[in-house]
Amino acid sequence: MIVLDATIVNIALPSAQEDLGISDGNRQWVITAYTLAFGGLLLLGGRIGDLFGRKRTFTIGLLGFALASALGGVATEPWMLFAARALQGAFGAVLAPSALSLLSNTFSDPKERATAFGIFGALAGGGAAIGLIMGGLLTEYLNWRWCLFVNIPIAVGAALGAFSVLQRDHIAKHHRVKLDLPGAALGCGGLLAIVYGTSEAVSRGWGDWLVLTCLFGGAALLAVFVLFERRTDHPLLPLHLVRDRNRGGGAISVGMAMVGMFGLFLFLTYYMQVVKGYSPVMAGVSFLPMTAAIVISATGIAANLMTRVPSRNLVVPGLLLAAGGMAWLTQMDVSSPYATMVLPSELLLGFGMGLVFMPSMSLATLGVAPNETGAASAIINSAQQVGGSVGVALLNTIAASATATWLATQSAAADPLVQKQGAVHGYAVATVVAMGILLVAAVIAFLMIDHKPEPGEAAEGAESAARAVA
């Protein structure tokens, strides 16, 4: 549900924009408000789960998500939809780390852990594509508002199941530590400034004073955040978690992979509907092969190999496969057939992402003390959501700038065919950048990740579980 909501409104966005009168300059905030609130608050959400118990925060996150979805579904003004999407992201930031923590603490046996995280990784990767399919179906046959209403029965049903099935893990007040609210403000503020500055570069240009102020100001806030976390007694982000090379390498790999993946969703959605003339449903269905590839790769390949081969031997080839998919798309033009251009790139990206997601998510919480699994879970989730936010803003800016520059050189720029050619040219330029990001991620993963499966991990997981009970 969480990952689905990052993309389900993509295909519904033209309908929602027309219905609520959202300007072209502001329409991106329907997506960015969600991913930014999610990514910016994940560290705080993970810490709340560590302090107040994951069952409680998981259930509250589900019910809050349902409420925010209902508010967005009945929105009558653009600001109402933006606010509801941000509220969805905020409750998702409480929900996601709790889910991953519950998974990590439940499965300690390496084989069971591999299967569980394989399923989790497949959902994390495939949920985005499923969101595009559901968005198309709901928009075409019902209404764009159902892209938000659909969360209500899912969330309420999951909350009832969690209340009856999950074991109570409430933490007594005298065992809790203070929340690092200044750290949350610094971290979230820095991320917000960077994403806002990147998105404003579309209309203002990279040299504009507001864009530069946001980018440098956001970087400065994040630097202060790191310094503050080193000195506070109760850090929102325990820096020793990030300094672990496997955890850090996995988070960087996922974050940079999501830059490419979310960029691909954005470009292919518009390519299918605007350039090729696909209906919303057909545009969504066109992503099915990538969804299938992610599921097969994560659950059928990565889950079976995770306990046998070093994690680097899965993550690095996965990033290279994804980069190969991007390289294929750089040859795209207005007349490119789906079967020979889009389909092969989707399959390469899907198989690659499945190999990246599952081992990276397992590394996120491997060997972490039970009272810090929420914070550790939030690191990988933050990388995923922030990577998606920055990816959409950055690649959209690059594509729009490349399109405008190309059209400026054309004498018949007003011709619809020429405009489509300009749009595809912009997509291709941004895809080259996404390919480069994935290649850099592969190098970083190769240098940082050195985890090898060992029989002792089962004993370590059992010991962690025993400490949690004690």
TrEMBL record:
One of its GO terms (biological process) is response to antibiotic. GO terms for cellular component: plasma membrane. It is a multi-pass membrane protein. InterPro entries: EmrB-like, MFS, MFS_dom, MFS_trans_sf. It comes from the Bacteria. Pfam families: MFS_1 (PF07690). The chain crosses the membrane at residues 29-46, 58-76, 82-103, 115-137, 143-167, 179-197, 209-228, 249-272, 278-302, 314-332, 347-369, 390-408, 428-449. GO terms for molecular function: transmembrane transporter activity. This is MFS transporter. The lineage of its organism: Bacteria, Bacillati, Actinomycetota, Actinomycetes, Kitasatosporales.
